[in-house]
């Protein structure tokens, strides 16, 4: 058993003996937070824990809004780092930034008056034990970071996240970039479905063509579903409504890279099938 495994075993046993293991797992978020979010930790830090909800203080309302959009991604990273579904929700608020001293509040799940007597003393003792354990964990994490860097792990220039060699960006920034480019491709193809993959890629600066193809598949599925549903619920006269004709025309352009005017009726039938081609056929 190596040094890290031995230390982890000792920490886990100590926490179990104190009845604090489950709590300690949650509180590790304070230690792991800077590594998980990188440079974002300058603008946001965990303020308190309430059950399975993590409250994070932010330096401004702008950061609260930005991080709220990233909440599912950050929540997933936190739970993965903790090794279980310890949090079900994460909330960001600039009001918590002005809350009283950070360090005094990091190890309490809820605010309240200081307890006195045997129960209060026991709680204080447990929290001191927990504090010592977390200090040890923090030291272990520093050694772990040094070990990873020695193995070639790089620090992301955008967010500060450590990621393995062989990649040009960290998983978090890669996921954010891909989601943004995918949504941009969907929006562009919705307006101009006749654009080719290369044209979309050049317009948006997307190097991964599979993102454009995925966006195209999404719109194909969306429009095809609308057409099928409309055909099932409409009579023969309604099948050539303005919305139906426009949707079928967009589907044709999406699949062919051309408008109906640039295709023969036979080509349209081959692309859409005879039933849908008939909707575009001029009487």
Defining key terms:
2 domains, 12 helices, GMP Synthetase, Chain A, domain 3, 3-stranded mixed sheet, disordered N terminus, 283 residues, elongated, mainly alpha, two-stranded antiparallel ribbon, single chain
Account of the 3D structure:
By secondary structure, the protein is mainly alpha-helical. The protein folds into two domains: 3-101 and 124-155, DnaA, N-terminal domain (GMP Synthetase, Chain A, domain 3), CATH 3.30.300; 171-280, no CATH class. Helix content is 62%, strand content 8%. It has twelve helices and five strands. The strands form two sheets. The chain has a three-stranded mixed sheet with strand order 1-2-3. Strands 4-5 form a two-stranded antiparallel ribbon. Helix 2 (21-37) packs across helix 4, helix 10 (242-256) crosses helix 12 (274-280) and helix 11 packs across helix 12 (274-280). The termini are far apart. The model is unreliable at 1-7 and 100-115 (pLDDT under 50).
How many separate domains make up the residues? 2
CATH fold label of the largest domain: GMP Synthetase, Chain A, domain 3
Q: Calculate the mean pLDDT score and round it.
A: 79
The amount of helix comes to 55-70%
**Largest sheet, strands/sense/barrel:** 3 strands, mixed
Strand order of the largest sheet: 1-2-3
CATH class of the largest domain, named Alpha Beta
Strand content: 5-15%
Given as residue ranges, the uncertain stretches (5+ residues, pLDDT < 50) are 1-7, 100-115
Q: Measure the end-to-end span.
A: 80 Å
* CATH homologous superfamily label of the largest domain: DnaA, N-terminal domain
Radius of gyration: 28 Å
CATH architecture of the largest domain: 2-Layer Sandwich
Number of helical segments? 12
């Amino acid at each position: 058993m190596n040094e890290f495994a031995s230390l982890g075993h000792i920490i886990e046993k100590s926490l179990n003996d104190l009845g604090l293991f489950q709590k300690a797992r949650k509180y590790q978020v304070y230690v792991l937070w800077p590594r998980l979010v990188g440079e974002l930790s300058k603008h946001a830090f965990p303020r308190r824990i309430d059950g399975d909800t993590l409250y994070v203080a932010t330096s401004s309302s702008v950061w609260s809004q930005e991080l709220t959009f990233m909440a599912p991604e950050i929540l997933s990273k936190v739970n993965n780092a903790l090794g279980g579904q310890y949090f079900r929700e994460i909330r960001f608020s600039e009001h918590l930034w002005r809350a009283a001293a950070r360090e005094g509040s990091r190890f309490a799940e809820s605010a309240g008056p200081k307890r006195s007597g045997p129960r209060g003393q026991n709680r204080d003792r447990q929290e001191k034990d927990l504090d010592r354990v977390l200090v040890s964990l923090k030291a272990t994490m520093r050694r772990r970071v040094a070990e990873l860097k020695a193995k070639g792990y790089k620090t992301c220039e955008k967010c500060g996240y450590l990621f393995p060699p062989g990649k040009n960006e960290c998983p978090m920034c890669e996921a954010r970039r891909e989601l943004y480019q995918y949504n941009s491709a969907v929006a562009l193809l919705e307006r101009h479905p006749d654009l080719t993959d290369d044209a979309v890629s050049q317009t948006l600066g997307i190097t991964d063509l599979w993102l454009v193809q995925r966006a195209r598949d999404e719109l194909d599925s969306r429009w095809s579903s609308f057409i099928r549903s409309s055909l099932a619920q409409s009579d023969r006269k309604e099948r050539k409504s303005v919305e139906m004709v426009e949707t079928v025309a967009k589907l044709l352009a999406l699949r062919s890279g051309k408008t109906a005017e640039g295709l023969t009726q036979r080509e349209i039938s081959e692309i859409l099938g005879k039933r849908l081609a008939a909707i575009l056929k001029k009487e």
